[in-house]
Request: fold
Amino acid sequence: MSSETKLVYQLKITLDGIRPPIWRRILVSGETTLDQLHDIIQIAMGWEDDHLQFLMPEDLEMDDVEETEEDEEDFTLNSFITGEKYKFGYEYDFGDGWKHTILVEKILPLDATKQLPLCTAGKRACPPEDCGGVWGYMHFVEAINDPNHTAYKNLREWYYGDDDEQQQYDAEAFDMDEVNTIFRNVFK
Reply:
């Protein structure tokens, strides 16, 4: 690829510590800023953007990237991704500690027929906000649909509120079309 070629990164975003894994595969422009990537991850994963986050390439020093909104708006993926198989991290909600590993699976030339960002695959539902991190989520999944579990009633009231009506939480649910609809509306 020539230096003139605009790059597209195929990224796999995996939520650390959850088995079976919760992940998304997205295509993003190499000109995507860290600030934009934060928004893309929030939408792709299904987070509500209610908490602090930190996105940082592992091999850069804090002196290279100050943790300010201005720098996040100027620092693009092209400026630090060194090639395929490059990994970096993203942490959301320091209280629950949702750590994500982002893997550059492929580097592709820009296809002008595809609107970016684009979600191309994914598995499993995003954990609910404020459920207590990995261990809290595992407890939530175990109890939310089991009327015999001691935490069943409290968790259902917390999660569903007054709209319970015997809904079933589906930890396997993921709607790629919904993610891409949101992408199209946000990133016109």
Q: What stands out?
A: Residues 28 and 116 are 6 Å apart (CA to CA). Strands lie at 7-15, 23-29, 53-56, 87-92, 98-109, 118-123. DSSP finds five helices and six strands in the chain. The radius of gyration is 18 Å.
